[in-house]
Specification:
four-stranded antiparallel β-sheet, single chain, 694 residues
Length: 694
């Protein structure tokens, strides 16, 4: 039996034989950990404001420097070293001479495995822990080790080691499945990302072929599974999770189990590794056709999607053509890798036929929607509730949650779900009919006044607890009528309008802006601010939704709020943010009265004497404004027309209105032209549109 001392000598000899890798690991670990950390900390300190908040932010980022969470070079380096340790440690299996030499010695396969495995692990582990400790000492020297930061640093180091083990074990398995170093490296890359590629194809192909595909927030089992779908993705999650507080026990357990499973699989394959596999592409010849199919089908579809990503706007026909062509070429390439003989490019006809046929079948199912994805409407007997969100809401509403960097999805908000969903159900039916009429979210043109459709997202809440999401293109007027019915529910109206999401104690200052686009600060006490916001809330609850689409607002409230969840930005001063788009309409009598009491009257017209210059840009497609037609005769596209005639200036000023709002569903009015107006005391122009004659 080999003694422990002999094991240590064998491991030492193994590391010495891989001295180039040990030296490479030590040098790069030194550069990417203590050296890079010193440079980063010095840069941060010089660029930060030097206050306690900045120091706290730097402290919170410091653990990320120990495993590359915040710096990709270190995380990429750990992955590359894991692959190199596996390849260099078990490369002897891919050489018949070396195999004969190693297996001719009085050591079992498992003993050789232990020696090579331990050698590779120590090549990474020793410099990583040594320079990780040096990095932590740098943190102490810079006063960053406060609170739970030391524990997070230890957790980050352990996360880096666990991430290394996952990639190391995957690469060892790849070496045992192949018979040449090149194919071993390729197999490592395939095993690391294969699951992610498969699941990304699910999303990518659905987005290309299905008109109603919803690609918003994660919604189902597939989306949750994708986070753990491949060792490479799990590796990145381990690195991030190890620097988070609190850490996720489920993530740690899943990572440990994954590492052990790949190690167990590697040991099982190694026990049955045939000696004649050396210098062959694959260790097990019978697996060649299966691996060929498993690689060809997803890779060819992925290449087709890549071509589409290069902005070939003709149609998905290029995806189809490229995928089929790629499948044929990949089959030939894989056969060449197997045999290294050009004469055998067309061998393996059965597996090639299965591969190309599978690609064609998948594309046919998607292209002709054979499973009826776009026409699917959940039966009402299985439906519990529904909610809707229009894409153009994002141009009208700004939610405080977005400022606070919190996750907010109105589709899943409790008060946005309707159990009395009849209007939404009919809207979904209209959307499905529009898909059949070739009116889809992908073809909607928001800038065309003649194309009166917009995109919406619909959530179907099923009685079994499952959520189904779809996107449709629907008629703007129909959606407005549906929205008006929904807003009869005061709880929904409070969910829809951002003013009800505010914490009034976070509002530091209120300004008001009118047609002049110049915010006027209101020196209000806390009580007056709250009184104004309460009056605005009452006006919003009483507002006719149609007015918010067709009427021009007089102006808007602009709030300066306390950002209690600031983004990590050491260059920022106070943690404040501006929140606007609280539009004020003529019907908002309570708000207007209070503003009048505070000495503010919103101006509805611009006085000619306040204008320094006007430049007019007619809309050559405009139909309703005769003045625009007259100007078009003397208009060179893009040049603009300078208006100097006082009478003409007065005419134009009468036609413009507050145009920083396009309506709750957009396209509130059609432009006969636009104007740039420089007001007295301003260096830059305000831009307004001139609506077509109404």
């Amino acid at each position: 039996m080999t003694s422990k001392i002999s094991y240590f000598k064998f491991i030492e000899a193994d590391i010495r034989n891989r001295g180039w890798l040990a030296a490479l690991t030590a040098v790069f670990t030194f550069l990417l950990m203590p050296v890079y950390t010193m440079i980063t900390l010095d840069t941060m300190k010089h660029q930060s404001s030097g206050d306690g908040q900045s120091l706290k932010w730097i402290s919170e980022l410091f653990p990320q420097m120990l495993n590359g969470t915040g710096r990709r070079p270190l995380s990429i380096f750990i992955l590359v070293i894991a692959v190199l340790c596996a390849v260099s440690g078990f490369a002897y299996l891919h050489s018949r001479e070396k195999q004969d030499f190693y297996h001719g010695m009085p050591l079992s396969r498992m003993q050789w495995f232990t020696i090579s495995y331990a050698g590779g692990l120590l090549i990474f582990l020793v410099p990583y822990l040594l320079f990780g400790l040096c990095t932590i000492l740098l943190g102490y020297a810079n006063g960053l080790m406060t609170g739970n930061i030391p524990l997070l640093c230890v957790s980050a180091l352990l996360g880096g080691i666990l991430g290394f083990l996952i990639c190391y074990h995957v690469s060892i398995l790849a070496m045992f499945l192949t018979g040449r170093i090149v194919t071993g490296v390729l197999a490592s890359l395939v095993l690391l990302v294969y699951g992610t590629v498969i699941l990304s194809l699910f999303d990518g192909l659905s987005d290309q072929f299905f008109a109603t595909w919803y690609n918003g927030m994660p919604t189902g089992f597939i989306d949750k599974l994708q986070s753990y779908s491949s060792p490479a993705l799990l590796y990145t999650k381990v690195l991030r999770g190890s620097t988070a507080s609190p850490s996720s026990p489920a993530l740690i357990i899943c990572s440990v189990i994954t590492a052990l499973l790949f190690l167990g699989a590697a040991l099982f394959v190694y026990r049955h590794y045939p000696a004649e596999a050396a210098e062959n592409a694959l260790a097990f010849r019978s697996s060649a056709p299966v691996i060929k199919v498993l690689i060809t089908v997803p890779t060819s579809l992925f290449l087709g999607m890549f071509i589409i990503s290069l902005k070939f706007y003709g149609s998905v026909r290029w995806l189809i053509i490229t995928s089929i062509l790629a499948a044929v070429l990949l089959c030939m390439l894989i056969e060449f890798i197997y045999h290294r003989d050009l004469a055998k490019l067309l061998s393996g006809k059965a597996s090639s036929g299965i591969s190309v046929g599978a690609v064609i079948v998948i594309l046919c199912i998607l292209q002709f929607d054979l499973f009826g994805y776009d026409s699917y409407l959940p039966p009402e007997r299985r439906l519990d509730n529904m909610s809707v969100y229009a894409d153009l809401f994002s141009g009208y509403f700004t939610y405080p949650e977005n400022i606070y960097s919190l996750s907010y999805d109105q589709l899943t908000a409790k008060n946005a779900a309707f159990t009395d969903y009849a209007p939404l159900y009919q809207l979904a039916k209209d959307g499905i009919q529009n898909v059949q009429d070739k009116i889809t979210p992908q073809t909607v043109d928001y800038e065309s006044s003649s194309y009166n459709y917009l995109s919406i997202s619909v959530r179907y809440g099923m009685k079994n607890g499952r959520d189904i999401y779809r996107r449709y293109a629907v008629d703007r007027t129909g959606l407005l009528n549906t929205l008006s019915k929904l807003c009869e529910n005061k709880d929904y109206r409070r969910e829809l309008f951002p003013v009800f999401h505010l914490d009034k104690d976070d509002v530091l200052k209120v300004s008001v802006q009118d047609l002049y686009y110049q915010p006027m600060s209101l020196p209000l006490s806390r009580e007056q601010q709250n009184e104004l916001l309460e009056a605005y809330e009452k006006d919003v609850l009483a507002a006719d939704i149609a007015d918010l689409q067709y009427e021009s607002p007089l102006g808007e409230l602009v709030l300066e709020i306390l950002n209690t969840y600031p983004e990590q930005d050491i260059y920022a001063g106070e943690n404040t943010a501006q929140l606007g788009q609280f539009y004020i309409y003529k019907s908002y009598t309570g708000t207007l009265k209070l503003l009048h009491d505070y000495g503010i009257t919103l101006r509805e017209k611009i006085a000619p004497e306040d204008v320094t210059s006007i430049t007019y840009y007619p809309n050559i497609d405009g139909q309703g404004d005769l003045d625009a037609k007259a100007y078009i005769k003397e208009y060179t596209s893009g040049a603009g027309i300078t208006i100097t005639d006082p009478a003409k200036i007065g005419q134009i000023l009468k036609k413009i209105d507050y145009d920083e709002c396009s309506g709750i569903l957009g396209s509130r009015q059609t432009a006969a032209g636009s104007v740039e107006i420089i007001l007295a005391g301003q260096a830059y122009p305000n831009v307004y549109i001139i609506p077509e004659a109404r």
